[in-house]
Amino acid sequence: MKTLExxxxxxxxxxxxxxxxxxxxxxxxxxxxxxxWPHHENxxxxxxxxxxxxxxxxxxxxxxxxxxKVIGSVGIHNRTLxxxxxxxxxxxxxxxxxKDYWGKGIVPEAVKEVIKHTFEKLKxxxxxCGYYLxxxxxxxxxxxxxxxxxxxxxFEAPALGKTFDGKYYIMTKEDYEMGKVMV
Length: 183
What we know:
By secondary structure, the chain is α+β, with helices and mostly antiparallel strands. 28% of the residues lie in helices and 31% in strands. The chain has a single domain, classed as 3-Layer(aba) Sandwich (Aminopeptidase). The protein contains 5 helices and 8 strands, in the order ββααβββαβαββα. The chain has an 8-stranded mixed beta sheet with strand order 1-2-3-4-5-6-8-7, with helices on both faces.
């Protein structure tokens, strides 16, 4: 993955040396659960996830420049939302952030940079994301970043043994090019 920069952040591929930072935020109860996975009970779980991030190379580590520390992630996964867009290139956007950094505008800053890269460099046609109704923070991020409501949905979270009601949001390349997204 190409390294991306914003004023406060570096978005880069994960490295083995990020294990302690990943475990620090992913072990906090409530962080992973908002995204459909259980918080990490031990570093072995974090190591397994880190190895997957490195292998798949579709998740950026969010490095907060001021502290030179990984504080979260933004993924752009090769997944399809809707058969209506079957002929088009799609990616699913997902993100998570350390609770210590909530409320500082970090996720919208990271997501907007990833949106720009996804449409301009990766030439994706459709970017989509979703959130559980219990996660109002993600709803606000989606809307701040220019995504528009697409449809209601149900999200399976097998790692939690639960199903959540939620909403899907979408952004097309045309939306991005028409300047509906301010990056």
